[in-house]
Specification:
Blueprint (H helix, E strand, L loop, with lengths): L1 H30 L9 E6 L5 H10 L6 H12 L8 E6 L4 H10 L4 E5 L6 H10 L5 H8 L2 H6 L15 E5 L4 H15 L2 H10 L3 H14 L6 H14 L6 H12 L8 H5 L22 H8 L8 E4 L5 E4 L2 H11 L6
Antiparallel strand pairs: 1-2, 3-4, 5-6
């Protein structure tokens, strides 16, 4: 009887050794066997709090691994790293070995996305740029940027961040909080306001908000970067003379604020609309920026050309005809806008 028990135990022990050996050989082979891919880079978004099974399923869905069950068992019972996986959007190749995949999950270095914000976009348009890049929700972006308390906490002298988000190329990771994105863009804007720039604004009697407001108008008025200092000079001349700025982009901005619709065609009713951003009705600068100007427009406002021009009219090619008096301006309007028609 005792001999039979010993034989049974020996057999069981041998089976366990064989099973263990088999599992060891399987794991060793599995760990170094690459997935059946071409080496293409694959982005996989691992949500925070994802367990090993969920991670395995996401990787299999993106074809980073061939079999989610095998990967799960290897990760949990052989590597024992299930509790150390990082979240975020991570970059893999589709021909990695399981060990290489796990190393990416352990390192957890998220993908950084480059995003370019062009000059002259309104807040809602900047929000759309980030939404299209899948880096932020447009509604949340705009609501945050228009939060008065948030703006005040950042020392912004305005009820929104319109005009304070510097057009630039940025690098952000997915799931970056909206407030962090906005703070980064504001910080870039403030880098433009060097001691030299602030001193120049002080000499001209302009506040930060006024500089950005006028720069936003200059930004919207011309598509030719060379014209910015000249456009700025015309507006400075008008302000000194107490004239109304009568700038169409401000009328369009007032229309958008009043109607909630983006409509760029200007009608007589728009010119007559009683709105603080309507520079055809109210003299001086509007209450705030009408878009987010770039550094060049800001510098153009502070270092404008020296000229006696008081008017300009579009040539319909991105440039303008400049005039010192109304008679010259009317001739230019007739030539370029009315095509010679009275």
């Amino acid at each position: 009887m005792k001999k039979k028990v010993l034989i049974a135990l020996g057999t069981l022990a041998l089976l366990l050794v064989l099973v263990a050996l088999g599992l060891y050989l399987w794991a060793k082979n599995y760990a170094s066997t690459p997935a059946l891919g071409s080496g293409a880079t694959v982005a996989v978004d691992i949500p925070a709090g994802s367990g090993p099974r969920r991670v395995a399923a996401l990787l299999a869905e993106k074809k980073v691994i061939d079999d989610p069950d095998s990967f799960y068992y290897y990760l949990r019972f052989f590597r024992r790293e299930a509790g150390n996986l990082k979240s975020g959007e991570l970059a893999f190749r589709d021909n990695m070995t399981p060990d290489e995949v796990i190393q990416v999950l352990l390192d957890g270095t998220p993908i950084t996305h480059r995003i370019t914000v062009p000059e002259g976009l309104r807040l809602d348009e900047v929000a759309k740029v980030f939404a299209d890049a899948e880096l932020a929700d447009a509604q949340a972006f705009e609501q945050h940027a228009r939060d008065k308390e948030f703006c005040a906490s950042l020392g912004v002298p305005a009820p929104s961040l319109e005009g304070f988000l510097l057009p630039e190329t940025y690098a952000f990771r997915k799931h970056t909080p909206v407030d962090e994105i906005l703070k980064t863009m504001l910080a870039e804007n403030r880098k433009v306001f060097t001691p030299e720039v602030r001193q120049r604004a002080k000499e001209m009697g302009l506040s930060e908000l006024e500089v950005l407001t006028l720069a936003s108008i200059v930004e919207k008025e011309t598509g030719d970067a060379r014209e910015r200092p000249l456009i700025a000079a015309v507006f400075h001349n008008r302000l000194k003379q107490g004239w109304k700025l009568q700038t169409d982009p401000s009328v369009i901005y007032a229309k958008i604020l009043a109607t909630g619709k983006v409509e760029t065609t200007i009608y007589r009713s728009d010119l007559e609309r009683d709105h603080p951003y309507n520079t055809y009705r109210y003299p001086g600068l509007p209450p705030g920026p009408i878009c987010n100007p770039g550094a060049a427009a800001i510098r153009a406002v502070l270092w404008p050309d020296q000229t006696e021009y008081m008017f300009f009219v579009s040539k319909n090619n991105g440039t303008h005809e400049f005039c010192k008096d109304l008679a010259c301006h009317n001739r230019a309007v007739n030539l370029y806008q009315r095509k010679g028609q009275p």
